[in-house]
C-alpha cells in the first residue's frame, strides 16, 4: 500500500520512501548554501595547564586547612568527623568519577584538617618529623615523575590491574590487622616498629608511587584524547589522593627510626 503522506508519496527502486516535496528555487538553494552549518556546542579540551591549576587548588586547600588545624590545635574532636566526611566524599568522587569541584575541594578541606591534627601529634612526639615527611614526599613525587617523564617505565593495563588489586589487598590487611589488635597487642604487627612493620610501610610507600605513575599516565592520555576540561578536576583529585597516601606512609615510616626524646 502506498503511503498517504504527500511528502513520502513515491517509493524508490528498492522500495524505500523518497522525498517528493517541492523543488527549491535557485534563491532558496543559495540561501541554504550560505547558511552556517549546525555544530553542537562543545566543551574546551583539557590541557596540562588545567591539571596543574586544579592540582594547585586542591593541594592548596589541603595544605591551608592542615596549617590552620595545626595552628589552632583543633584536636580529634573536629579532625575525626572531618576525616569521616572526607572519606565519604573521596569514595563518592572515586566510584562516580565525579568532576564536581565542590566534592573534590571538600575532600581536600576535610582531609587537610585531619592531616593537620595528625601531623601536630607526630611532631609533638618526634620533633622535626613533619618536615622530613614533607621532604620525603616531594622526593618521592619528583623521582616518580622523572621515571615517567624519561620513559624509564610506563604503566600498562596489566600493571594498572596489579596496582588496584594490591591496594585492595593492602586495605584488607590493614582491616584484619586492626581487628586483630583488639585481641592481641599490635595485631599482626603491620603497624608496629618491627621488621614486618618496616617491610609493610615500604610496600605502602611503593604502592603510593605506583599510583602516581598511573595518575601521570591518565593525565597524559586524557590530554592526548582531548577529554573535556572539567576532567582536570578528577585528575587533580587523583594526584592529591596519591600524595596524601604517600605523606602519611612516609610519616609513619620515619617515626620508626626517629628518637622521641
**What is the mean predicted local confidence, pLDDT?**
86
The helix-strand sequence is EEHHHHHHHH
- Please summarize the sheet with the most strands: 2 strands, antiparallel
Residue fraction in strands: under 5%
Low-confidence stretches: 1-21
Number of extended strands: 2
Helix/sheet category = mainly alpha
Coarse shape: globular
Q: Give the spatial strand order of the biggest sheet.
A: 1-2
Helix content: over 70%
Description:
With 261 residues, the protein is mainly α. It is 70% helix and 2% strand. It has eight helices and two strands, in the order ββαααααααα. The protein has helices at residues 26-34, 48-72, 76-96, 101-125, 129-149, 157-183, 195-225, 231-255; strands at 10-11, 17-18. It has a two-stranded antiparallel ribbon. Helix 3 crosses helix 4 (101-125) and helix 6 (157-183) packs antiparallel against helix 7. The radius of gyration is 28 Å and the shape is globular.
In short:
The protein has 261 residues and is mostly helical.
Secondary-structure map with pairings?
Blueprint: E1 10-11, E2 17-18, H1 26-34, H2 48-72, H3 76-96, H4 101-125, H5 129-149, H6 157-183, H7 195-225, H8 231-255
Antiparallel strand pairs: 1-2
Helix pairs in contact: 2-4, 2-8, 3-4, 4-8, 5-7, 5-8, 6-7, 7-8
